[in-house]
Amino acid sequence: MTRYQNETRLLHGGDYNPDQWLDHPEILEKDLELMKKSKSNTFSIGMFSWSQLEPREGEFHFEWLDKIIDNIGEMGGNVILATPSGARPAWMSKKYPEVLRTNNRREKMLHGGRHNHCFSSPLYREKISIINRKLAERYGAHPALYMWHISNEYSGDCHCTYCQENFRLWLKNKYGNLKNLNDAWWGPFWSHAYSDWSEIESPSSIGETMVHGHNLDWKRFVTDQTIDFYEHEIKDIRQLTPEIPITTNFMADTHDLIPFQSLDYGKFASHVDVISWDCYPAWHNDWETTADLASKVGFINDQYRSMKQKSFLIMESTPSGVNWHEVNKVKRPGMHLLSSMQFIAHGSDSNLYFQWRKSRGSSEKFHGAVVDHDNSEENRVFKEVAQVGEVLEKMKEIKGSYKEAKVAIIYDWENNWALNDAQGFSNASKQYPQTLQAHYRYFWDQDIAVEVVTSDADLSKYTLVIAPMLYLIREETMTRFAEYVKNGGTLVSTYITGYVNESDLTYLGGWPKTLQEIFGLEVKETDTLYPKDKNQLIYQGLPFEIHDYCSILALKEAKSLANYTKDFYANTPVITKNNYGKGTAYFIGARTTFDFLEAFYAEIAQEKQLLNKWVVQGDKEVSVQSRDFEDYTYQFVMNFSEQLKEIQVASSGIDLITGKEKNKNLQLQPYEVLLIKVNEG
Amino acid sequence: MTRYQNETRLLHGGDYNPDQWLDHPEILEKDLELMKKSKSNTFSIGMFSWSQLEPREGEFHFEWLDKIIDNIGEMGGNVILATPSGARPAWMSKKYPEVLRTNNRREKMLHGGRHNHCFSSPLYREKISIINRKLAERYGAHPALYMWHISNEYSGDCHCTYCQENFRLWLKNKYGNLKNLNDAWWGPFWSHAYSDWSEIESPSSIGETMVHGHNLDWKRFVTDQTIDFYEHEIKDIRQLTPEIPITTNFMADTHDLIPFQSLDYGKFASHVDVISWDCYPAWHNDWETTADLASKVGFINDQYRSMKQKSFLIMESTPSGVNWHEVNKVKRPGMHLLSSMQFIAHGSDSNLYFQWRKSRGSSEKFHGAVVDHDNSEENRVFKEVAQVGEVLEKMKEIKGSYKEAKVAIIYDWENNWALNDAQGFSNASKQYPQTLQAHYRYFWDQDIAVEVVTSDADLSKYTLVIAPMLYLIREETMTRFAEYVKNGGTLVSTYITGYVNESDLTYLGGWPKTLQEIFGLEVKETDTLYPKDKNQLIYQGLPFEIHDYCSILALKEAKSLANYTKDFYANTPVITKNNYGKGTAYFIGARTTFDFLEAFYAEIAQEKQLLNKWVVQGDKEVSVQSRDFEDYTYQFVMNFSEQLKEIQVASSGIDLITGKEKNKNLQLQPYEVLLIKVNEG
Amino acid sequence: MTRYQNETRLLHGGDYNPDQWLDHPEILEKDLELMKKSKSNTFSIGMFSWSQLEPREGEFHFEWLDKIIDNIGEMGGNVILATPSGARPAWMSKKYPEVLRTNNRREKMLHGGRHNHCFSSPLYREKISIINRKLAERYGAHPALYMWHISNEYSGDCHCTYCQENFRLWLKNKYGNLKNLNDAWWGPFWSHAYSDWSEIESPSSIGETMVHGHNLDWKRFVTDQTIDFYEHEIKDIRQLTPEIPITTNFMADTHDLIPFQSLDYGKFASHVDVISWDCYPAWHNDWETTADLASKVGFINDQYRSMKQKSFLIMESTPSGVNWHEVNKVKRPGMHLLSSMQFIAHGSDSNLYFQWRKSRGSSEKFHGAVVDHDNSEENRVFKEVAQVGEVLEKMKEIKGSYKEAKVAIIYDWENNWALNDAQGFSNASKQYPQTLQAHYRYFWDQDIAVEVVTSDADLSKYTLVIAPMLYLIREETMTRFAEYVKNGGTLVSTYITGYVNESDLTYLGGWPKTLQEIFGLEVKETDTLYPKDKNQLIYQGLPFEIHDYCSILALKEAKSLANYTKDFYANTPVITKNNYGKGTAYFIGARTTFDFLEAFYAEIAQEKQLLNKWVVQGDKEVSVQSRDFEDYTYQFVMNFSEQLKEIQVASSGIDLITGKEKNKNLQLQPYEVLLIKVNEG
Question: Domain Beta-galactosidase trimerisation, which positions (chains A, B, C) (predicted)?
Fold first, then answer.
């Protein structure tokens, strides 16, 4: 049994960078004391240690790291050991400039920043092999070693000659010959057909930017090349430490917490043993309610849980504010516990922080951390962290449990790339990820569990599948959708679906036949509205506002549930329902305000018995999420509001946080969270 | 007689890119069928075919083109054959990087995009000569050949060493010696005098940007070098096919449809046989009324008609939306016919589209086209195109007719360049083209024909000449203005007129003497206002708002028609009138809201009998434009509103569109257009 | 006695660029006439004359300059002679590209603009030595020579290999060894430790931007290297003309007139003999009142006066508008005299203009000047300039006098750099200079004299020292603050003070102990608010709004003057007072609206007897500033409003402007200024 298999605790702790404090032994000593006081048990080490591990080429220093790992091990802690490829030492950039990236304008970057390395450079690959191997050899058998943390937040691309050559090889491998490539990229347009592989270069703002197939393949290549680099990094590690699980930390994009845009994590997920990711919501901001944001946090955590259909790790989060939002506000009292519990509620087995101790200098010195510059256990943040540590210990029995869902929302990275790149519609209003968040919101409000999966997912387990705005859709996906509905599934799709195939080539001959069959209609035109333009639909006697997009539909077997009320397509269908095989397919032809989605999904949830049975009388701002283990359901009841709330539930149980019995009438203070263990046996 | 001379039909059709569909013979066949069904008769071919015509250096493939041209010829269609210089094949960029542009930062561009070629490169000129000659030799005598379409939408500049050398030669040719150049560029300022020609480089954001004479000469050079490239392209074509007319397609800038900013089309116009241009209004947008936009469409089409004082061609337009506006909304039913008729009303002999069939891939696949991806003749856009085709056949008798106007507005490219580059006033409020559109608006509202001409135009034929904001004005222009007024003309000028000569050097000794004489006043100061600053004038007892600019005037012979009411120049003149020789010169000293221009021009129109006699009781949103042929006047009556409208006219006639007799009381549905043939004989 | 020592007149005149007009002898002659008519006595010459002085390498032409200087001398004028390094001739850029800058992306700039020279280039230094020496030899003994004007508005940086090498030398000199540098820059963070000096490069947008110590040292180096270049320029000049004073013209940043951001003028000041600077307020703008802007003008002129604690020179200003504001509005009648007097009131001994005569061409041809393109003495601007010339003659007895102040505000360039670079808080709301302007405003409103000094200033002479937002504070500064308060001083500090030391490394162990002692409290957390977030404090029974920043304070000896009313720190202290030694230290824990600062400082001003005794009943929009000479106080009374104003003063006197006796009840027309000579003897 490895440490990973033996560990029964939920993980608490975070990124620990003792390499910044080697000259301050008193600090390192204090750290050990504070780790215990904060009930921390797991530390990620070495993410950016290369200049300490190998300060000069070939001169390695592991003594300091030995000491740190031993110390953590001695106090019963887990070490998540990172490979240091996230940043190179300056000597390497100086001696071997090829390790640095070349940007899309073909400028060789200078030494600096982090994540500024070429994924193709043979030299960089050789250097990372050497040091990774040394780390695996030295620490692979260390009893404290819990997991490998490969590099850090892989992202970005490189346009150097090595990468150009690899891109061409990738294309050759994909297309076989130039004829196929020219067909897929619609080569004759603007005379863009290639006559020799060597003519192909990566997209560039001073060169080619307009060929969508080209752009799409470049993004696919960047994902594949990043995975290839990752696989290169783990090769020896896997061989030397076959039982130690391996992860790398994923991310979200922007303060809206939409799925990371630059890499296809749907593809990357199968290469890691455990999903881990870094979550930084902008709590208490001034443009949305706390519940608005909490719903987005729910969405993306559900996505990460769904990736491998098992529990995952929060690898980084902040106990306070961050340093890179436009406004870096501190968490209000109570929010740290609440938001930590939300991670667990959605399937995380950890709450780890970036970082353990605030740096003293450079750009992240004001990023929230467990230990502040005051080095004190008396400040508010430290105390709230310690409280989370304590609570995590009380609830450790749920570790590893997985939450089932009957509703799936489909997020497709390639679709997102293609849609964003599409010239047409309106760039400002495409908003694919935000549209998914809006559809998700109904279920979050109603405490109905959701999975967020890719187009390739097995849909058979779901009662309801929601696939909005699948602008790029493969024939194969359409076939699987048809199978799913035929077999009794319920499918919802929307405007801007079914335009192009996997090469970003439009379907010819009208809306794809398979979609016509599933939905019993044909999409004839898509009207793109200006921001001030509004339309309307009447659904169940009530008016709902429409904006941005209106599909004009020609119905076949489908029946209309609602019509447009305005413009030249007034009185034509906008919301439709079609019985197909044993199932049902709904089509939402226009972008509506959220109130329509609420009314629409309420109907389906009722009909398909999707409602949360435990929540008798809920509250939209009180989120209830559960995890199951053996005969018990662990109900997380979370008040994401600044008001006192009350909800009614179907059964009583013990609140693991306070240890108190809770009856079916639950009262929650602002930001309060309960974890009620309910016997469902 | 050539096909061009024989053709009696108005042109209908557009850009046809069969080179994208050579692998789809069923599509090419369907095209022929749909061409007929849509009453299309003219197709522009080959704009971006170089990679199909010469897929490898020196290997030419014309068979496919032979077939297409034969097919079009057989069905009685016209071919407008393009030279392919708008985009190069990848092999050429790879083998001869000199054909690619160097941007102003002196970065050599990579292969990609289109229009990315150096206008000076000897190699590119050689390559285009070879293929143009082959095209002329092969198709010059083809009976379907109607016209040459040289390249596509010439634009942009190049800063490579060839271009630098050509710029220096151009300067030597212009100035003769460096003393003259240094004088013209005000060389001693900031030590910018040159001591050797080789020191001169083109303006650059990493070099010189602040010398206005330098910038102005560079823009002139870019126009001249573009024309030189064009002349190079047509040399052999002209020799081989002397009877085939030659054009290249011009453009407008931004969704405001202002004249294209980068090339002096006033100069370019004399080099083409027929003016043709590409017009893409953003109909149904949310920031202006339909009439607001229609007036701008009127303005720029009037400008293109005025360039050669004869009918012109719409070479590109869209039957639906485009793909490059911020919001790409589809045309509402009726708008396609209405907007097509507006082109003809202002002097076009065609309505051609970009493009015939929507591309399947790459960046323009969602640009509106006659044939959609559904390949159907049943959809709304195709039907509306076919309707336009039918209407064009009914009205073909007006082909070639030219509309006279008694009002001219002067648009001067060099003035626009110099004014935009001027450091002073306020960059955000200069708005030279928009100011001309505002002055034009009164005449459009009142259905009074206007020509839009350059400063060099012969003014003697006009009753009224409007020359706002001529910041840069040549001595010679002032003299011609003086002659015009002396001989009885009416001239209107405004604030920010008469500052600099053709070298962008200020006039010394006060406002130019010739202008002082014409207008009977001197401009003493120009006050530039902040956005929130307002002044006011009282004209004919009514107050009108002033913003942006206020000239302080010292009157001599002129009399004041209105004074300022505020600020330190309150009670001093702002609107003046001067009798000069047999004519009259008005000066508008400040920027006013449109209501003043209405009142002001109403007075002049009344006095000078400029009013449209046929329109007894018009409507500002119903535009009436006419073309004359023999004894008939063809009155286009166009309702650019979403309301039912009624106007009274002076005489009845047949509506060519419906074939019905119309009396003097005309009712128009929203977006309805009538074309009433009135016997004026 | 030198001309400088002998000159008893206040300086009036400005930048004179006859080198632009050498072909126009009639203009040069007219200039002499207009100089006299405008009562101008001082002219800065040669700022950009290099291409006229040395049109070809080694070929020098001084004849024209001889003539100009002789002419000015003959009419009794002073010449401020500039070295021409502000712009190079084109031949030099062409032959020696090393003289041009390399930008941070490592692109070599092209010839063009001005101020585009490398401060390290040996060749440029050699060339400037040669010409400076020639100027000093030729004109050093000329009786008209008043002062040296070195280069023009030094600014910007260069990243060429010479500069890289100099940066490394500067770092070696500062740190001695790499260990020290790595410690100061917090090297191990992101593996940024250096192992060899050669690895270090300047910050770059394509390289390193995130290491704050690195950025801060680069900015320090740029200041030092600029001063080094300046010292190189003056070496021979000083040797040849030891008695002629030397200056270079400083600047302000943005239309908000905040201290220039790119160079540490606090450091530069000790290298010039006389402070001179260029002041361009945007009078009559539409976003603030005239008094708002006048207060900012007061602030920065006070800063320049404080630099050497003596009178200074306005080297450039405009008699009308400029050409580089977003809106270039002309000065309203009266504003020129008023704003000119304000310069003198705050300690200037000059009002000099850029420029004497408007250029005819190139980018500054519409910048306001004494003589316009009309070459006339009859226009409004010329007459207002002549009026200023006349008034300056009437008040010359105040020349050289210095105004004492009991209040100091600390502006620290390094703090500004570090705070702007800090990642944390909120970038949009840091606003360090604007915060100082807000604190200054109370004193300006109340006509209380202020000095604006650096952290290094001797504080012992002040009754009140205001040091807001000293994010970066040296140990030594804290010690001096402690001494100052201990000895009876009154110190005010604020939120975001005391975070980092001079290396931008945070203080460890909590808020710095010295600050804790001075203020009797500890800062525990800083809450950064979103723009819509508001808090509140109650001070003396009145509520005041809080935004942007809230420090959470733990009081020790201090007592609370006001508490927060909202959020989780409601009822905790926000404004505190501490008795420390013989003095008092106030801490303002949150950013408030200005009304709080008014109430707060009113209390202190009352208690510390800081109020202006001469102003019995003032007006916030009427600024009173004074200069003292022998037994007299010269009271400048300036109405910065568009209304008639009345104030009461303590004693009567003669208004030097009108020559009239004024009693204690002063009435002022809009924009009127009085200069009342009061006998205090």
Answer: 405-610
